[in-house]
């Protein structure tokens, strides 16, 4: 999950998060990322299959902002992140 300078969150999957973040900051990729070029990685999970990653992405996207903020806080603290 990345956050832009407006505080908006973008959730997606990738097999190379460093490259994906660079693309977002170059305003390449998703339409959402084209309006801003200051993104920071705020949450990351690794999964063994793309199907698992996609399922988790959908779960996270359905969550309210408060729950996403909890994930981000736990991630920054190094705590377990499942909600």
Key traits:
single chain; 83 residues; mainly alpha; 3-stranded antiparallel β-sheet; 3 helices; globular
Molecular structure report:
There is one protein chain. With 83 residues, the protein is mostly helical. The chain has helices spanning 17-25, 50-62, 65-77, and strands at 2-3, 9-10, 40-41. The protein has one domain (2-77). The protein contains three helices and three strands, in the order E-E-H-E-H-H. It has a three-stranded antiparallel beta sheet, with no helix packed on it. It starts with a strand and ends in a 6-residue tail after the last helix.
Given the helix and strand composition, which structural class is it?
Answer: mainly alpha
Written as H for each helix and E for each strand, in order along the chain, the element string is EEHEHH
Radius of gyration: 12 Å
**Residue ranges: pLDDT <50 for 5 or more in a row?**
none
Total beta strands? 3
Number of domains: 1
Strand content: 5-15%
Mean pLDDT, as a whole number? 89
């Amino acid at each position: 999950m990345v956050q832009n300078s407006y505080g908006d969150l973008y959730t997606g999957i990738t097999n190379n998060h460093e490259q994906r973040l660079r693309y977002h900051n170059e305003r390449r990729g998703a339409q959402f990322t084209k309006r801003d070029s200051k993104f920071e990685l705020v949450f990351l999970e690794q999964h063994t299959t793309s199907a698992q990653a996609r399922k988790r992405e959908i779960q996270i996207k359905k969550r309210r902002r408060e729950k996403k903020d909890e994930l981000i806080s736990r991630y920054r603290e190094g705590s377990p992140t499942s909600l």
